[in-house]
């Protein structure tokens, strides 16, 4: 079982002067779900090397057993410090694709042509493609082989408009996932704010928020029959 996890390289929250990046729980929880299930994991990012972590995801209230394990795990830390670039990555070499969130993907992965090409290749090969929280921003410009938006007619979720308003960033972010998916014909689903909620439609898996990280990863493992 080989899983490609693509994370953001973007570290600026618009022009607010605040930092952003990956939300640690959304990387750590799926990473260990996959690794504990026997997966060989590749961590990649648009710029390669050490990607940025959202500092807010490292405050005490945001820490979980998975984040603590990630911070103390030598193998995980080495992989995180040395993410590969997207150059030369092929869907042929992996069984599933997963995008952690954090606000960063709204700025880089939403429009990254190499990432979009990888998503479309995984979909064309009928392999699981998954994302959690803001990770689904990576899907907004992806198309199916017949040229339709990837999410059109599909049940999907992602960070809700209400959750974005609750963190005070609805006017800062370049796109709202709920609005984008709805505009593209996605059948957007949501649970209560901050509740775990993962949605599966065929081989497409989406999770609503940080609390959905484990659930989204578990759905990928199920699709892989592990």
UniProtKB/TrEMBL annotation:
<protein>
    <submittedName>
        <fullName>Dimethylallyltransferase</fullName>
    </submittedName>
</protein>
<dbReference type="InterPro" id="IPR002818">
    <property type="entry name" value="DJ-1/PfpI"/>
</dbReference>
<feature type="domain" description="DJ-1/PfpI">
    <location>
        <begin position="26"/>
        <end position="222"/>
    </location>
</feature>
<keyword id="KW-0346">Stress response</keyword>
<dbReference type="InterPro" id="IPR050325">
    <property type="entry name" value="Prot/Nucl_acid_deglycase"/>
</dbReference>
<dbReference type="InterPro" id="IPR029062">
    <property type="entry name" value="Class_I_gatase-like"/>
</dbReference>
<comment type="similarity">
    <text>Belongs to the peptidase C56 family. HSP31-like subfamily.</text>
</comment>
<dbReference type="Pfam" id="PF01965">
    <property type="entry name" value="DJ-1_PfpI"/>
</dbReference>
<keyword id="KW-0456">Lyase</keyword>
């Amino acid at each position: 079982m080989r899983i490609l996890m693509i994370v953001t390289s973007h570290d600026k929250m618009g022009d607010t002067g605040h930092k952003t990046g990956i939300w640690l729980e959304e990387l750590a929880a799926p990473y260990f779900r996959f690794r504990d299930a026997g997966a060989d994991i590749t961590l990649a990012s648009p710029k390669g090397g050490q990607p940025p972590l959202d500092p807010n995801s490292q405050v005490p209230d945001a820490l979980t057993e998975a984040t603590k394990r990630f911070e103390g795990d030598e193998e995980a830390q080495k992989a995180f410090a040395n993410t590969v670039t997207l150059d030369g990555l092929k869907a042929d070499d992996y069984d599933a694709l997963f995008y952690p969130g954090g606000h960063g993907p709204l700025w880089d992965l939403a429009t990254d042509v190499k990432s979009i090409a990888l998503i479309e290749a995984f979909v064309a090969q009928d392999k699981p493609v998954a994302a959690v929280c803001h990770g689904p921003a990576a899907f907004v410009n992806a198309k199916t082989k017949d040229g339709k938006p990837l999410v059109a007619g599909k049940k999907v979720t992602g960070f809700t408009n209400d959750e974005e308003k609750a963190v005070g960033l609805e006017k800062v972010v370049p796109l709202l996932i709920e609005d984008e998916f709805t505009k593209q014909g996605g059948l957007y689903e949501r649970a209560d704010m901050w509740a775990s909620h993962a949605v599966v439609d065929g081989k497409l898996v989406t999770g609503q928020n940080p609390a959905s990280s484990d659930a989204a990863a578990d759905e990928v493992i199920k699709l892989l029959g592990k």
